[in-house]
Design brief:
Blueprint lengths: L12 E8 L11 H19 L2 E9 L9 H12 L4 E4 L2 H4 L3 H14 L3 E4 L4 E2 L5 H4 L1 H28 L12 E4 L2 E7 L4 H12 L4 H10 L5 H7 L12 H8 L8 E3 L2 E5 L2 E6 L6 E3 L9 H12 L17 E3 L6 E6 L4 E6 H5 L11 E2 H22 L2 H45 L4 H51 L5 H7 E6 L5 E5 L2 H4 L2
Parallel strand pairs: 1-2, 1-3, 3-4, 12-16
Antiparallel strand pairs: 4-5, 6-7, 8-11, 9-10, 13-14, 14-15, 16-17
Helix pairs in contact: 4-6, 7-11, 8-10, 13-15, 14-15, 15-16
Amino acid sequence: MYNTVLQHPSYYRVGLYIRLSESDSDKSYESESESIINQRNLLMSFVKQNEFTFVDEYIDDGFTGTNFDRPGFKRLIDDIEKGRINCVITKDLSRLGRNYVTCGYYVDEYFLLKKVRYIAVLDQVDTFLNNVGNEMIPFKSVFNDMTSRDNSKKIRSILRNKKEIGKFIGSEPSFGYMRDSEDKGHLLPNPETAFIVKKIFEMANDGTSVSDIASYLNDCKYPTPSLYKKKEGSKQKVNPIWTISSVKKILKNQMYTGDMVQNVQTKLSYKSPKKVTLNKEAWIIVPNTHEPLVSREVFFKVQNNVKRKPKTQSNREKRLFENLIYCKECGNTLTVTYRKNQDYWTVNCNRYSRDPRRHLCYSHFMPYDKLEEALLDTIKNTCKKYLDKLDIKSLAKLVNDKNSKKESNMEEINYLNKKIKECNSKIDMLYDDKFKGNISEDTYKRLTRETEILLNQSKARLEELQSIDKKKIDSAKEIKKYEEKIKELINLNKPSRELLQSIIDKIIIDKDRNIEIFYKFSLLNNI
């Protein structure tokens, strides 16, 4: 496949790549590890026979070949980049991967670019030799891709059948359950965590708020679902603190009634690990498949409490700076609240005030009215300073200069548009000449490459000029627009929320009440 001079066998520093997918476990191997051993024995024997220099092996046990997001393969690529290995050997092409496009990229482009020899033993592929196996690479890759698609359909059919009869087929049971050692499709209460789930439902049934339940669990130092799974060997991210969302997730989970709830998500395709959530109508629910941790009566009673929204003053008029002020420490909005008993408005961090005992943030508690008064004074003073500095004659000259410069740019822009059109036409003509046999493949590639370089350069310069013109136009418009709004704000004792929102981007306040005001008009930020 490559025009490469073969070196002495010892020159090739070999990395053996071994992969076993989950679907391979149905094949006639004694075990998954046995299959890994079989691949290793085959490849090591090949290395010794050919007197190559063995460097390392890279194993992905239980990883699909339809994508290349595998730890062993990533380490292999990293060692190629470091120059540690210059030869990759697999049992066959399907062990490298079953995605036709990406597999082709590595065999036909990446390995070639890095001067890496690739060998697939059973398929008789060797990219440094001219043999029949190399010619069959595209066909074998397509076949492997089709085989993967066919296997995916079969596996999905088998798994769906298991779901429909109430067998658990997920990777990890819901918090509070564990797999039955005698029947992996059956769930049993986990003695280490089931009592936590029961306590959550008991407290919710008694009317305890979700926030108070989370605080109680944290005070008791009970492990969160992600923390417990981490202990069991899961690779998921860990949140060691119980939150409102983690408690709600348990309270909404119908699995705790003894029903098997599956098919909630599905993969986008057999090549992609990404999942999408399905509509509830598509869920597969089989009742009474395992021991419940909560009665149905309590579960559905609790659902009403979980869905109930807290009382808010949605009909009241919003205060002047509401939704414009943010907490510097956590980034959440600072909530403006009316305290009826004391008859005054306050400000506090939304995240902190939801559960102060968990110390998720800091208190930003302060009277709102005084804050509003101070903010208005500061903003008006800044705007006055801006207007005092503004030189109308200089501004007019600036706008005129920009318009003149824009006209001069138009000549180059028109020239570039013409040049881009010519380059596209030339590429089309070259393709026709190659198709008709008027020019050779090498000539076509050389002329096309030269034309594409000129085309890309012209496009880049055109984008640069258009970007410059847009910035100039926007700047001139921005100055005029904000000048009018600033004058309006200064002349009003109490401006409207809409006017403030048109000038203010956001206001950030830290726990020590230090204030930063960010304006939408960039010149104001520099005053």
